[in-house]
Amino acid sequence: MPYNVVVAVDGGTASAAALDWVVDRARSVAMHVEVTTVVDIDWIPQVNTDPMLLEHERIVDEAGKRIRFSGVSAEVSTTVQHARRLPGLEAASRRADLLVIGSHKTRGAVGLIYGTLPLAVAARTHCPLVVVPVDWQPGGERVIVGVDDETGAAAMAFAAREAEREDDTLVAVRAWDVPPLVSGAWEAMESPIEAFESSERAVLDAEVARVHAAHPDLPVEAVLEYGRASVVLAQRAEGARLAVVGTHGRGRLAGLLLGSVSHDLLMNMPCPVAVVPTTGEAGQIEPTEPGAAEP
Question: Region 254-281: what's the mean pLDDT?
Answer without folding.
Answer: 75
